[in-house]
Amino acid sequence: MDIAELHTLFLDMAVTERRLPKAIRVQKQASWPDYPMDWHGYGWTQLGEVRLRPTGDQIDAMDRAHGMIMQLAEDDRRLIMAVAHSAVGRDRGPRWTKLAHILGLNDPRIVKRNYRDALTRLYYRL
């Protein structure tokens, strides 16, 4: 597995984590739900985004990626997770400028270099 495959593995891990159900389920316990009065309102004309569930293979790959990332130092782990989650749903890749602002760095190229260095350290550790 080379560095580009590690990058893809962590991006897929972030997508899988977003597809998992939420850890805390919030439900209304003491209210009566509103219901539509006509027969068109019962799901046949459902509009909105369909939430896809991850497959077993995707969850296994996510667990394998978590096991790999735990071999790194905490700063590298946080950086890799932040980069992976900032790239979910974007065709252009991670938001380097936003990550640099969050990390308190002046230049997004520093974040990108630190990310490449973290992946390189993981590659040689494996």
Entry summary:
It contains 5 helices and no strands. With 126 residues, the chain is mostly helical.
Commentary on this structure:
The chain has 126 residues and is mainly α. The chain has one domain (1-19, 55-126). The protein has helices at residues 3-19, 56-69, 74-86, 96-103, 108-125. The longest helix is centred in the last third of the chain and has 18 residues, at 108-125. The model has no long low-confidence stretch (mean pLDDT 87).
Index terms:
about 130 residues, mainly alpha, 5 helices, about 0% strand, elongated
Structural class: mainly alpha
C-alpha Rg (nearest Å): 20 Å
Per the principal axes of the C-alpha atoms, what is the gross shape? Answer: elongated
Number of helices: 5
Oligomer classification: single chain
Q: What share of residues is helical?
A: 55-70%
Mean model confidence by pLDDT: 87
Which range does the strand content fall in?
under 5%
Q: Strand tally, please?
A: 0
Report low-confidence residues grouped into runs of 5 or more. Answer: none
Largest sheet: none
